[in-house]
Structures are given as C-alpha cells and as structure tokens.
Amino acid sequence: MSISLAVEEGDDNGLFRLVARKEAVRAGTSWLSPETLMAASLSRFYDAHEACLIQVAGGPFTMVTTIPSTRLDRPIEAFHIMPRVISMIGALRDHYKPVLLPNDRYAAVLAGRDSHPDAFQMMGMLNGSQALRGERVLLVDDLFVSGAHMQSAAYTLFKAGAEEVVALAILRLIVPSAWHENRRSIWQEASDQPFSFDRCCLCAAARRW
C-alpha cells in the first residue's frame, strides 16, 4: 500500500519531486530536507494507521526493513535515504534491520519494471537460511512505480522464513490514462477523495462494508 499518489509531470508534482528527485522544500526563510518531510509523513501515517497495518500482518511487527538501491548507473548513492528516514521515527527505528542487498545481475530486470525472485539477497545469510522465521516484517520504500522492487524484496524475505510481510510506500507514481482502466480508476478514486492522513486504503475499504 502507499500513503499518497503523485504524478511525474505538471504543476502539481511537488510530491514526486520531493520523494523521487529528493528536492528540498522551502519553508519560510529556510529549507526542509526531503528526509525530514518524508519521515514526518511516514510517522504521521503510521501513528494513524498502525492498527490497520498490524491487522494485515496478523500481529505487531517484529522487524522493519527497507529496499536498497538497484539503479544501473554507477556509482549509486552511497547511503540510501530510507534508513535515514526510518531512524527519525521513534515507532519504527528500534525494529529496523537492514537485511536486504541488491543482486546486480537482475538490476536491469527491475529497471524494466519486472520482478525477479533473485533480485535481492539476504545480507550475510546463505541461500536457504530461515533467519527470519516467525518475523512479521514491515517493508518500507520511498517510491512505488510498478511494484517490481516491492514484490522481489518481499519474496526474498518470505524465502528467508518471514511469517508475514506488509509493504508500505510513501508515494505511488500514477500516470493517468484514459486508455488504461486500472490507472484511470485509481486516479478517479483519488480525485473523488482528496488526500487525508485519517484515511488509508485498508480502513476506507472496511468503512464501505
């Protein structure tokens, strides 16, 4: 699931510039860093919807982890922004463990927006290790585009024995299209219900029932 939707182009793409391009935001006479704003958004959402996420996980989260960068260009950023974001959130940082490593052999697959079961590997663990047996994992990323990274990372966590993995992205990129039914319906629903931290896709669905 994602906290909010955004478009890449247009006058209202401020969220995309913040999350995807890591642009600072002006606040009065000063500038706010992208990690500060991302942490504030994630923290507020988690405070409001922890119960929703825990219900999906089947119990309280025992671990929080993030998805490392798999960009094809080298050198990639030395320190991915998401560990810094998590470190700023009191409710999440004590459970944080960076357990995933990218497998460069499949970076091009992910770049093509396809998932792959071997796109990530467990840090310091042999294949077949059940080091995460019984863990309920909150998998957090900054940007959801096709879901390939999330799906591939979740597969690796399950393969390592995780009992449950709940994926949460700060932002989902959507390209509205009259010719793409799924995109059109998602964007229409988002337009009909303006963003609010008081509502997530899980509790909104429950209210409809």
UniProtKB/TrEMBL annotation:
Record-linked SUPFAM superfamilies: PRTase-like
CDD domains per UniProt: PRTases_typeI
InterPro entries to which the protein is assigned, alphabetical: PRTase-like (IPR029057), PRTase_dom (IPR000836)
Keywords carried by this UniProt record: Glycosyltransferase, Transferase
Signal peptide limits: none
Keyword Transport annotated: no
GO molecular function, one term: glycosyltransferase activity
UniProt entry tagged with the keyword Transferase: yes
The protein's name in its UniProt record: Phosphoribosyltransferase
Species of provenance: Nonomuraea terrae
Record lineage: Bacteria, Bacillati, Actinomycetota, Actinomycetes, Streptosporangiales
